[in-house]
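Chapter review: from sequence to fold.
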Amino acid sequence: RVEIDNTSGHLTASTKGLTIYYAKGGAGYLIASAQGAGRFVVYAREAPNPYLTTFQASGVTLTEGIDVANVPLGSAFPLGAFVAQNDDKDFRLVPWEDIAEAGNLSIYTGRVGSDVSASVATAMLDGTVGDDGLPDPPGNLATRWTRTSGPGVVNFADPFAADTAAAFSALGTYVLRLEASDGVYSTRDEVTVWVGKETELGAVDYWSSGDLPLGWGAAAYRFEATHDGILTAELRQGSSAESELRLYALGPAATAIEPPLETGRQRIDLPDAAAGQRYLLTVTGLTSPAEVCLANLVEQAGGTVTVHGTPRDDHFLFDVSAGHKVAVNGVAYEFAAAQTAAFFLDGLGGSDHVEFVGTSEPDNATLYPASGTFSGPGYWMAATGIESAGFDGAGGEDTVWIWGSSGANTYTARPGSAEMTGGGVSVRVVADRIYARGGGGADTATIWDSPGNDLFEFFPIWARVTGEGYLHNLQGFTTMIGKAAIGVNGIDAAILRGSPQGDWVKSTTITTRMLTLGAWRHAEGFDTITAYGRGGKDKPDTFLVQDTPGADTLKLKPLETVLVGPTYKVTAYGFGSVDAVRANVNAAEDAVTMEDSPGNDTLVGNPAWTQISSVGPAYANKATGFPSVTVYSTGEGFDRAFLSDSTGPTDTTVRNDTFLAGSIASELSAPGVYRIWTRFFDEVHGEARLGRDTAHLVGTTAVDELYGTAAELRLSGSNAKGAFVNHAKGFDEINALGILGTDVAVLLDAVVDTATYGPPPGVPLETLAQILWLDRFEKIELHRSGTIETTALDNIDTVFAYWD
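The token string follows.
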């Protein structure tokens, strides 16, 4: 008994079933089955019975018995069959040629007396045996070929001839022995024969085999080098103590020239391969699924390294963080930093990507849609023909320039990193200072803030973002968006600067955006936002601002607007047209103030909106929807205010309004609805339409004059800033107070009871069209239209007048 294998090898604890596949000359295979595993183990029939392969039969889960036949069994099994009984239920048959192909086994028909496809390769053996003529008589010389080792069976055409043919049943490395004897003396010699699948690859720049089947054991590749430079063969998987790579130059007759140029277990590098030279790579000792790789893409000439791409997709790595490392499609090369300074890369065709890792010192890069340059201490690199790129500065104060294409590019930047995609561009960088340039298409840039304090500055054609340890500089993007978070990540400020043309800015609780020279600038989530207009030449700069849900403070000055909300602040300078809108209608009390200019200003106000404007300087500030507006005049220039309880001819709202006008301040209001308050306006006009409206005209301690008609009343006098006049039009009831001084009232076509100076008895006052109470006017004159009739009422404290 001879032990071939045990459970420490390829067998399991429950082995049930053994059969023999017969071949001539004692060749063939022993097949054992593992009952519970449904696996079948194959050994050579010839001693020392080496393990060859393991296979499984589809549908077999529990083996009760096996058998094998090497004779044809009908059209379904022309070259024999393997049969297994499955769990005492049925029989599963497998064509022997399927097993032989998968495990690189022989096929024997049992009729022709030879192995059909029994060999995977055949070698001609040329043995030489010399004889010294002894013993006497000579001529008793005998020779014999035998297999010493190898993964399969060797069939010799004539094992007793020095020159014969050998057929090998499996791939791999064999040792064959030739013995010679003259009856007295004997000698022997051995030769190693490599048997493998040989593949013609043609011209190779980069090639990978993919996963080689386990049963191969060995392989060979003939090819031609594409470039001068380094030729690399790499065994990426399946390497072991038994694996070996050998690289040969091929001679004119396509035969391998001994000795090999390079040998190794996992990788070999031929530094001086020649373009056009043909080579042979042999791979042996594969004990697990393997992948073989060939690369001929790197050349070093002095201090310059040239890296070639292929017509296919390539991935390049350039790493100078420690020495100078170049990798192409996963094949890495190390170069001494002191011996290499210049690197050139051409991706050629395909979709190629280059990844760069810098030093701990300052590195620089300029990246275009299909090319780039990289430089730093002791190196310089130029890359062309690339479709995407990545840059990692890896420490130091690194600077990167990114250039977009003419297509639509999308740029996203964060502190210390950025990415540009779209329009044929794919770039990702990590650096301290990053300069991004749009390429003329509809390009969009989004920049995010840092955990600390950040400053975002937007200009008409460029932008700058700074914070601790980083800088972003952008130019040529049609849309730029700054992203921050109110109340977190430090105190962030955004500044938007306009152009000499008419710019447009709108600020809401979501974003502040500027349209300048056809480009958009957005600021979102900032603690402070400041916008600068530059005085539009073609039209005024326009600023639109909305309130927040909280209680806001809004100040509107000529060419200056400030909105202070509970969480952020917005300031605008130089905008000739401002419209502030109350978008959040709630119980929050917004404080809105307006101020005039040193020139002549005009204020127009109603329950819906209030606007103050001037032509020198040219500006118009408007507040819409705010229930309370306070307006201040400096007293310089001639300022007029027009206050109305109606928004226009289509306004049918009925409310009871009150107009209070004094020498300094005036106010038009409706309780709980609106209030417009003014100060130091030279002329104030109050107008009422619907509802029961009341006006109060209050004089000064000096001389005041009142003039009234059925259409309008006006009270004039002087204050600390000069003369003033207040008008009341369309009010149902007017109260005029003279206070002190010799005040004069002139009434045209008014009705006054000169007997009682009071209201007409028995007449409800609300039925009269317009009534007037005069209080403390020293002189009152009653005039009639079309006549010279005048009635003087002097020193009457209170006089009631009305118009029919």
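Two observations follow directly from the output. The CA atoms of residues 416 and 431 lie 5 Å apart. The mean pLDDT is 90.
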